[in-house]
Amino acid sequence: MRMDGNQAVVIGGGAAGMMAAAAAAESGRPVILLEKNEKLGKKLYITGKGRCNVTNACGRDKFFENIVSNPKFLFSAFHTFDNNRLEKFLEDNGCSLKEERGERVFPVSEHASDVTAAFERCLKKRGVQVRLHSEVRAIETDGEKITGVRLADGSVISTGTVIVATGGLSYQGTGSTGDGHRMAQALGHKVTDCVPALVPLEVIEDWCKRLQGLSLKNVSLTMSCGKKKLYQGFGEMLFTHYGVSGPLVLSASSYFGKRKGTDKVILTIDLKPALSEEQLDKRILRDFEENRNRQFKNALGGLYPAKLISVMVERSGIDPEKKVHEVTRQERRRLTELTKAFTLQVHGKRGFEEAVITQGGVSVKEVNPSTMESKLVRGLYFAGEVLDLDGLTGGFNLQIAWSTGYLAGTSSMEMEGQG
Fold first, then answer.
1. C-alpha distances in Å from residue 63, one per residue of 27, 60, 391
2. Half-sphere exposure of residue 194, counting CA atoms within 13 Å on the CB side?
């Protein structure tokens, strides 16, 4: 096949790949975008429950506070193409946006398909050749630089520039099956251990099953290992038959793998974070006064959701049949402490099939943060979740994809111009 060193090949038509292809084609350079699925942006369709939380509108400092792995590596990429530029890009390509609680940004339509459609318009306008049902098996080199990519059907596309944007290992039904990691390793790159992140947690407490389906809003969650606090956040969480889930827990899970040592990992929930212990005690006293002749187990409806009451009664150690006016000050104190520090012990994380993202990937030590080019192979670039980069929920992981995708695309174009 004829060598066309001028064309760039992007592997993977997800968030990072679509952005990389759009950026590389901005100067009129020929770009081929290869996607093994039947459509582009397949994983985008399920992000934000199908609404697609495209980014977070927060400032730079807050953005980096929400990056869990290798935030410093992202400085150049975010500086080059930040959340404001992403919003302008989507708006310019016909996808109107809105901001919601927590500075999360969504399409006005609440349809992820509108984000993909915006990219499809841009790719078409810039002349990108999109090839669906095109699975890449290997990246070929002459030992120093890229020479082409070999597809599953045996054909070879000649190129001197390849951008790998194949995603991680989460949501494997969308095609994220570690292809990029295998390609990177075959070319001598180190791939760090890949584990599920933004994933529900399993706990050892059996009574958790009784709370299945219970959602807690406006609670504070702390995850600690021994004396070290791994995570603290405020928001929503959900009990499941195996443990806990919901936005707070997903964020906490990203720090579970970062712990050192073998100490137990404990989740502590403050069920009434707006009240101090003293204020809470007064609130309990007031409730008890109104229910003074009722049994303890029947006097907690104003304090806790119905599903939680039997567990709170058990864990407080107070006799459920006891009349409220007979509850001692010491017992009331125990109830206050339990409400402010309701604990669970983490047994482990759920698997990749339930993970929003992958933690781990191509080692950023072997990638130039100013260009996203491999330090080992000339003409090889990486973007998105294939890299060892991840953030918390709220649009941060998609912004990682947009920023690294854009930088990889523009850098590949500039390098070619220099060649």
1. 30, 5, 9
2. 24
pLDDT digits (tens, 9 = 90+) for 121-148: 999 999 999 999 999 999 999 988 999 9
Q: Specify the pairing of strand 390-391 against strand 195-197.
A: unpaired
How far apart CA 300 and CA 324 sit, in angstroms, is: 10
Q: What is the pTM assigned to this prediction?
A: 0.92
Angle between helices 112-125 and 83-92 (to 10 degrees): 80
Cα distance between residue 175 and residue 185, in whole Å: 19
Residues 250, 392: Cα–Cα separation, whole Å: 8
Which of the two residues, 260 and 194, has the higher pLDDT score?
194
| Distance (Å, whole) CA 170 – CA 349 | 13
| Cβ proximity of 292 and 273 under 8 Å | no
The residue among 176 and 288 whose pLDDT is bigger is 288
**Predicted confidence band of residue 5 (pLDDT cuts 50, 70, 90):** low
List of residues 6+ apart from 311 with CB closer than 8 A: 207, 210, 211
Distance of CA 378 to the CA centre of its chain: 30
Residue 163 CA to its chain's centroid (Å): 22
- CA dist., res. 124 & res. 382, Å (int): 23
φ, ψ of residue 313 in degrees (nearest 5): -60, -50
Counts of helices then strands in the chain (DSSP H, E): 11, 21
Length of the chain: 419
Residue 418 has pLDDT above 70, yes or no: no
pLDDT in tens, 161-211: 999 999 998 877 777 788 999 999 999 999 999 999 999 999 999 999 999
Structure tokens at 4: 């066309």
**Is 212:362 a contact under the CB 8 Å cutoff?**
no
End-to-end CA distance of the chain: 21
Closest CA to 216 of 353, 339, 102, 333: 339
Contact, 86 vs 78, CB < 8 A? no
Residues 342-360 as b or e (16 or more Cβ within 10 Å = b): bebebeebbebeebbbbbb
Helix (H) or strand (E) holding 56: strand 55-56
Q: How many CB atoms lie within 10 A of CB 85?
A: 15
Structure tokens at 273: 């974070």
Q: Using an 8 Å Cβ cutoff, are 70 and 364 in contact?
A: yes
